[in-house]
Amino acid sequence: MKFALMSLLLNTPNALTGESFTTQEKFQNVLKQAVLAEELGFDAYGVGERHSAPFIASSPPVILTAIAARTSRIRLLTTVTVLSVLDPVRVAEDYATLDHLSGGRIELIIGKGNDASHYPLFGISEEEQWESLAERYALLKRLWSEENVSWQGRYRTPLENVTTQPRPFQQHIPIWHGSASSTHSTELAAKYGEPLFSSNTIHRQSKYTALIEHYRERLAFYGHDPAKAVIGSGAGGAIFIANTTEEAIKKFRPYYDAFHGRLKAPHDLSPFRDLEDNIENGPILVGSAEHVIEKILRYNKAFGNQVLSISVDGLTESEQREQAARFAEEVAPTLRREIKSSVWNDVNPAVETEAVQEPVV
User: Fold this and answer.
1) Domains of the chain
2) pTM over 0.90
3) In whole angstroms, what is the distance from residue 106 CA to residue 112 CA?
């Protein structure tokens, strides 16, 4: 199994200390997280995209460029690129530029986003989100794979003989499809035969298992081999490891209560009674290292995922370092041995572009 550390740049007061990062301090915190992730042997670092407070993740390509300048090996992910509201020409240009500046380390996870407040900002309705995503993605793929593109659609002005610059550094910039709640995302991923990244955040395991099973069924429908499906998964947006599960629950409870107290949208409301119910039946990773390993293996049996992403946001900086290190040192080695992964197999794309692992099915 391979591992990504990621951040949505949620910037709220610490649930225990009450202390807050300034905007500048939070950006620096994320840069330090990414450098630490590379030092600890994580395979990737991801930056999400949100366009409203308390998130400050409105410009992932800018943040990832700063991370690229401070790292040399780690893959750079978008978790996710909200393509349903973005101009594909701008996306093609920005991320091809980042692809060069990073030496070919960028990978996109695309999606429609989890925050409906961004739709009015970019001039589309929530009802149009899936149609918009599908159209914009079809254009983005053409802009990266073709020159002299002529195109006409609903969500931007027509193009006539357009070749975006720069061309990508990698032969193919890998694309994953973010999946959270709808078969629209699994359908789009299956249609193109491309990897799926399950958010695995709010719901019970059965919800995400059903979406992944739909993805595999539709892969076969479109003529792709479901046995070769490449799947990533989140981990409930939370991890806390302690010497015992009881200690981890005690220390993490204030963070859990504070986070769930902020959730207001119906689709964000937790189906779990409390923290213990989530630990037992939900996605979050809270417990001893042994407990966390067992849970990841259990979820992997249901999902078949080769990649797992975790986040340490919301904790104090010292706790962020401690939790990332404990995961890397006490959990990751066992899972790397137990679960095979075909992605990110130590190819340096800056040296060997043709051999870059493209995680497609």
Assistant:
1) 2-355 (3.20.20.30)
2) yes
3) 19
